[in-house]
């Protein structure tokens, strides 16, 4: 299953990497692709959307499904 969430506040490649790493830590995530220009993160796996949003917010960014 693939889930796309909106991520606001990314301004550089390091931001993308930080968000990607945070999402990869969520249980059930198998793959992540982050695009700061589109303000989106695509996540494959069976992770709970609430957990994904929380992981991004814990990393210091605004997120919503």
TrEMBL record:
InterPro entries: HMA_dom, HMA_dom_sf. Residues 1-64 form the HMA domain. Pfam families: HMA (PF00403). Keywords: Metal-binding, Plasmid. GO terms for molecular function: metal ion binding. This is Heavy metal transporter. It comes from Salinigranum rubrum.
